[in-house]
């Protein structure tokens, strides 16, 4: 039969209306491969089929526990898995099979942005390659320690460009922090046709 706490009409093995508090102890599943245990949450006046839920499962292939955060689709018959956390620490949003620490599938990601229009939209400073301790980035810019490749994945210099570059507006300085001309060079230049 079913047990009800705060209700006279329990619909499951244990139905609780109210708040549950666990101070000590352990809640355990039986460890059977591919078996799923779920915690359902709703506002109390809806049947369990319309509840959101957290499911915990153990699969023998691969041998790993997985926790899924699922939202009811409103039909009473299906749930959408929004986020998956695996025992190896991988977190997936929009995917139930995250292959790395954070995998986001479908839609755009915004950091400091309420309506991102690209795969990744960032409002504020960012840094890459500065180590675990981190440093302050340039205001609304990106600070990079290492080589940058444009049109290439094998950048051997601080900036490697394969293809045509186009600069519109502003000045470019080589060896200068405040260029005064469209192209301002502090030292000598040389190529096959011209030498100064």
> What is the C-alpha radius of gyration, as a whole number of Å?
28 Å
Listing every helix as H and every strand as E from the N terminus to the C terminus, the arrangement reads EEEEEEEEEEEEEEEE
Strand order of the largest sheet: 3-4-5-6-7-8
For the terminal residues, how far apart are their CA atoms?
94 Å
Largest sheet: 6 strands, mixed
Can you tell me the residue ranges where pLDDT is under 50 for at least 5 consecutive residues? none
Bulk shape: elongated
> How much helicity do the residues have?
under 10%
Helix vs. strand class = mainly beta
Helix tally equals: 0
The overall pLDDT average reads 84
Strand content: 35-45%
Q: How many strand segments?
A: 16
Structure description:
It is built from no helices and 16 strands. The protein has 196 residues and is mainly β. Strands 3-4-5-6-7-8 form a six-stranded mixed sheet, with no helix packed on it. Strands 1-2 form a two-stranded parallel ribbon. A two-stranded parallel ribbon has the order 9-10.
